[in-house]
Amino acid sequence: MLNNVAIAVNKANRQRTLREPNSIDCVLFTKKVERTSESDDYDGSPTLGGAGMLSDEDEVNYSWEYACDARIHFAQGYAAQLGNTSDNGSSLDYADGVVEASIEPIANPGTEGYVQPSKRMLVAVMPGGGIIANFEIVDVTGNLNIQPFTRKYLLNPRPDESVTEQL
Deepest of 32, 89, 156, 167, by most Cβ within 10 A of its Cβ? Predict the structure, then answer.
């Protein structure tokens, strides 16, 4: 029964994001780390000097791969709630430029071409007129902690990436 609440909220948020007049077209890219383990020890995970890495967050040898087309709707801003800490406590220490947004792929969930946005994805926002603004998803937040959870994304501006020049 409680799951129906989260499912309904996610469906409503998806429809609002896709149909909202103020939502903007965007393209999602996933990060592909160039320096990975060739041995079976780390199953293709990022490595540094032969040691397996837990995260590719600080990796400098990477490229971006096209994931899907989507729509984005920016919120007014973001301020972490008191006591709202992630597993490493970073949600109380975001940069000043962080913004909150809803992102929904154009493809329907469960169909080919649907990609669930996640941390460290590049979001190329295209408001029109040949302008492209790049953001990186730095965290996923939401207001319901019931499976399947509600999802909003915290974005930091990202320096211009060459992959988005071709858009």
Answer: 156
Burial of 125 by CB count in 10 Å (0-12 exposed, 13-18 middle, 19+ buried)?
buried
Residue pLDDT, tens place only, 2-30:
678 888 888 898 999 999 999 999 999 99
CA distance readout (Å), 120 to 42, 82, 138: 20, 25, 6
Instruction: Please tell me whether residue 122 adopts helix, strand or coil conformation.
Output: strand
**How many degrees, rounded to 5, is the angle at CA 135 between CA 132 and CA 141?**
140
Query: Distance between alpha carbon 101 and the CA centroid of its chain, in Å?
Result: 10
Nearest to 51 by CA among 60, 59, 41, 61: 41
| Element containing residue 6 per DSSP (H, E) | helix 2-19
